[in-house]
Design a protein that fits this description.
With 383 residues, the chain is α+β, with helices and mostly antiparallel strands. It has three domains: 140 residues, Beta-Lactamase (2-Layer Sandwich), CATH 3.30.450; 64 residues; 146 residues, Histidine kinase-like ATPase, C-terminal domain (Heat Shock Protein 90). It is built from ten helices and eleven strands. The strands form three sheets. A five-stranded mixed β-sheet has the order 6-8-9-11-10. The chain has a four-stranded antiparallel β-sheet with strand order 2-1-4-3, with helices on both faces. It has a two-stranded antiparallel ribbon with strand order 5-7. Strand 8 and strand 9 form a beta hairpin. Helix 6 runs antiparallel to helix 7, helix 8 crosses helix 9 and helix 9 packs antiparallel against helix 10. The longest helix has 59 residues. The two termini are 57 Å apart.
């Protein structure tokens, strides 16, 4: 089925390219034909002008020549009389003719469009005709460019529609997988809660039950996070300093002693619209990525930098770094440099911050063996 779809797309693309090429070729041929006709017409006009300047014309021939000369109402031209050094224009703006600089530019342009036609009498060149494209030729001249632009816009529209449709399908798939995961975790979780209550009755060591309770709370948090994917989460006015501190403390307690944690935050609350569960999930993803990049040994630092309208949360590590060309790729679903992993952490983080919190997340800076700094930017709310 996929092979047939791919073949259909290729066939459609080839047919489209063939039709576009045919249209462009016919337009080019038509344009050249019109230019040849214009050239032939001006040669006839030049012959009539030459006859009109001859003193030995008969009256009948003179009238015919005048009729031909007067019949040109479309082709822009400049007639230069060499002896008198006089310029006569036809079908052009009088200001272009009167201004020497503008006239010279027009003559130069005409000379690039058509070869000037000399008018001679008895071996002496009396006049030179400079002429350019008629309005209809100029319109056709830019028609291929306009056609190509329309085609590009059409292709971009199709591409955008295809990407949007594909993204919508992926979003539905993600939402379905997340909700199904939450449902699957929820069943044994309920059972664990029941077993914990039984263990309390059986007088089991309270420390064991306490640790189990922490893990159950953690599983409940994970379940709640997954259940929010695919639906619009509820945002509440929260102190970003406090929420970051809580996520920091949790990760610090559960990380290796080889990881040094540093936290630099303001000594006053900063309010933002936030979903605490999803925000802490994002911080965890970024911190865990940093720990993996450091291979389990190094320094993780979190720094909160407030501005007038927003607040920046910067998570830095001392790992191997990210090359600049991959700054945007790291947020693509499936992109990962790990031997194990699905490459979904940063993609989820981008969705949580960008779509759910109307914020921004990016690689602020990074370099080979100099570590990486990720940045989250959220809008501040009035205190």
């Amino acid at each position: 089925m996929q092979n047939r779809t791919a073949l259909t797309r290729w066939l459609f693309s080839l047919i489209s390219i063939f039709i576009i090429s045919l249209i462009l070729w016919n337009t080019y041929s038509f344009f050249n034909q019109l230019k040849e006709n214009e050239r032939s017409k001006m040669k006839i006009w030049a012959t009539a002008q030459q006859e009109n300047t001859s003193s030995d014309l008969t009256e009948g021939n003179s009238n015919l020549a005048l009729t031909i000369i007067q019949s040109n109402n479309t082709t822009p031209m400049i007639l230069h009389s060499i002896r008198e050094d006089v310029y006569i224009g036809k079908n052009i703006d009088s200001l272009d003719l009167e201004n020497p600089e503008r006239r010279d530019r027009l003559i130069k342009r005409f000379s690039t469009e058509y070869k000037p036609i000399p008018i001679e009498f008895e071996g002496e060149q009396l006049q030179t005709i400079y002429y350019g494209n008629s309005p209809i030729i100029n319109k056709i001249k830019y028609y291929p460019a306009a056609l190509i632009l329309i085609i590009i816009l059409f292709v971009l529209a199709l591409y955008f529609f295809y990407k949007t449709s594909k993204s919508s399908e992926q979003n539905k798939l993600w939402a379905g997988m997340a909700k199904e995961t939450a449902h699957q975790i929820g069943t044994p979780l309920s059972s664990l809660v029941g077993w914990t209550e039984i263990l309390k009755i059986e007088n089991v060591n309270p420390e064991y039950i306490l640790e189990m309770g922490k893990d159950i709370d953690r599983l409940e948090t994970i379940t709640e996070r997954f259940s929010k994917i695919g639906s619009i989460p509820k945002l509440e006015k929260k102190d970003i300093v406090l929420e970051t501190q809580m996520a920091f403390d949790y990760l610090k307690r559960r990380s290796s002693k080889l990881i040094i944690f540093e936290l630099k935050v303001p000594d006053h609350p900063i309010s933002v619209n936030l979903n605490p569960q999803l925000y802490s999930w994002t911080i965890e993803n970024l911190v865990k990525n940093g720990i993996d990049a450091m291979k389990g040994k190094g320094t993780i630092s979190i720094n909160i930098v407030p501005t007038i309208k927003s607040v920046s949360i910067q998570i830095a590590d001392t790992g191997k770094g990210i090359s600049k060309r991959n700054f945007k790729k790291v947020f693509n679903p499936g992109y990962t440099t790990k031997k194990r992993g699905w490459g979904l952490g940063l993609s989820l983080a981008k969705r949580i911050i960008g779509e759910y919190h109307d914020g921004k997340i990016r690689v602020l800076k990074s370099g080979n063996d100099t570590g990486t700094t990720m940045e989250i930017v959220l809008r501040r709310q009035p205190e």
